[in-house]
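ESCALATION

Customer reports they have been waiting on this structure for their group meeting. Please prioritize. Original submission:
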Amino acid sequence: MKKKIFAFITAAVLGTQLLTGCGSSGKNKDDDKVITLSVCNIKAYEDTTKVWADEVAKLGYTLDYQIVSSGPQLNQAVEDGDCFATYHQHTPAMDDWNERNKGHLAVAFKVFTDRAGIFSTKYKSLDELPDGAKIVISNDAGNSFRGLVMLADAGLIKIRDDIDPVKVTQKDIIENPRNFEFIEVDYAMLSKTIEDADAGFLYATIATELGLFFEKDALIGEREELQEADIIAVREEDVGSEKAKVLEKAYKTDAMKQALKDTFGGENVLEPAW
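Update from on-call: job pushed to the front of the queue and completed.
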């Protein structure tokens, strides 16, 4: 997740235009050697998809991919059968979309882990954060809890003991001794708002936009059991299909491992999930 992210108005217009191309072959059931894919217009996805297409070609298939800038449209294209698969999200985001849209998407396979952390463009450690610090967190169901849980793990706030970590919200904070102010923003705005705040939640890929790297600059990282791997999502009936197997075999290659590194100048920003 990472990247130059456009405003939603632009996303809606551009996404509609590009999805038209995806649909042109997505519903052609006779074209058994073409696999249509909707891809997020973020560097990590775009750059690796180019390599992925070459790997798919080695297996005798064509990867017909379209770059789209709207997450909901990426999923809707698969739900409607206009595209076979989509490349842009982790499982909680997919599950949330399914629930909101009565969708039927499912995980075909995992691709990489984009580690999450608390970052700052102003401070080098959690101890430096001032009382009353403004901390940006995501407002979507798949990510909203992450920043709060990380700060609780660091002992800076306390949350209820009887709550599932993935369901934590600001209402579950029972102690905030340093009076941090939590500002919830849309995921797409995280990298744009953190510079005006004192710190905030970011995935490693988003942090690189600001010249920050997880291993060097994260004030705290998310505990491993809460990390979510990005996935390839398809319709439920397409899980385990021949095309899904081709996509997985082509992705889980040394070439793709290298592509994940090359996307970020050789830095280990993304971790292969296989």
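Sent to customer with the following note: The domain at 116-226 is CATH 3.40.190.10 (D-Maltodextrin-Binding Protein; domain 2).
Escalation resolved.
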